[in-house]
Design brief:
This protein is α+β, with helices and mostly antiparallel strands. The chain contains 5 helices and 12 strands. It is elongated, with a radius of gyration of 37 Å.
Length: about 325
């Protein structure tokens, strides 16, 4: 994969609340010459201005850059990293219909220590980086947004997007807050932004830890009402089976009582008249319970087909939405 950032790895260790070690020599000299009141004013307290060691964005010829001191809105063509045909981005490849708006703060802020000028005193120019910049809203007309951000993919769920429009948000924390409702909808239009038909419907994937590998496999979400109906069917079947078992036990106990209480003796051995007389009645009652058991097993089989089989309309698992 092409190198996406000027710095390969973010810094390690805690960062101070105020980091000014990377300031240019001119900026340090100016700060040292200020009075106590001037230094307080240049400290940034209460919204005052302050100098920070923040490299500038490396501009592309097509870009309009608004902002300074680590806060930018950039209007240009799709590029998530450097300026070279080998780098990712449809703008780097010369694609048309690849307009981009990149709104971000904290360029390379994941670095523990950065400088805003090089050894020759020239200002550092750095490219955007989807990994080490602090927070970003990226809007592109044509891009490979999942690849740019290194996002995990579930091959059975929502596939990674290629050569399509995208809006991406990234930060340490993202909150979506509504005073009324929140909707997350997929498959809204019959065509995508390039005019092609959306032939394959895709749902919603919730991926924790950016990992769909072993131990983090994606599974369909459970549908509440369908699960409720399935559990109700199982409950009813268990209740019916309990009743049949209770009835069978009562008939067995009756048979035991009849056999156990018969003590009629004859010269030819014990009499079986009383037991034989009760036999047909108990046999009929027992066969009735057997028939009910067969029916109960059939009901359970139908319930399994209706709620647990993947092809059924009442399946308890969502056909569209998955999570790990």
């Amino acid at each position: 994969m092409a190198k996406q950032c000027d710095f390969d790895k973010p810094g390690v260790g805690a960062q101070k609340a105020v980091e000014q070690g990377g300031l240019s020599s001119d900026a340090i000299d100016k700060l040292s010459e200020l009075s106590a009141q001037g230094k307080a004013h240049a400290s940034g307290i209460a919204g005052g201005k302050m100098d920070e060691a923040v490299p500038e964005r490396a501009p592309a010829d097509c870009e309009i850059i608004m902002g300074e001191q680590g806060r930018y809105i950039v209007f240009g063509r799709d590029r998530p990293a450097g300026l070279h045909p080998a780098e990712p981005g449809k703008g780097n490849k010369g694609h048309t219909k690849a307009a981009m708006i990149d709104l971000y703060v904290g360029p390379q802020a994941a670095k523990k220590y950065i400088k805003d000028e090089n050894a020759d005193g020239d200002k550092y120019k750095i490219n955007p980086c989807m990994y080490t910049d602090s927070a970003r809203v990226y809007i592109s007309q044509k891009c490979d947004i999942d690849d740019y951000m290194g996002l995990a993919e579930d091959t059975k769920g929502v596939r990674n997007s290629h050569d399509k429009s995208a809006v991406a948000l990234k930060a340490d924390a993202i909150r979506i807050v509504a005073r009324e409702g929140v909707k997350i909808i997929s498959g809204a239009d019959s065509n995508n932004s390039r005019g092609a038909k959306n032939n394959k419907f895709q749902g919603i994937d919730l991926i924790g830890g950016n990992n769909t590998g072993p131990g983090y496999e994606m599974e369909p979400l459970v549908k509440g009402f369908a699960l409720q109906k399935a559990l109700k069917g199982i409950y009813d079947a268990i209740s019916a089976n309990t009743g049949m078992i209770q009835g069978a036990l009562m008939h067995i106990s009756t048979l035991g009582a009849v056999l156990g209480s018969h003590v009629h003796e004859t010269p030819f051995g014990p009499s079986i008249v009383a037991a034989a007389g009760s036999g047909p009645i108990i046999l009929v009652a027992t066969m009735d319970q057997v028939v009910k058991c067969v029916g109960a097993k059939q009901n359970l089989a139908f319930a399994e087909l209706g709620k647990l089989a993947n092809f059924s309309s009442g399946h308890i698992l969502s056909r569209c939405n998955r999570t790990n």
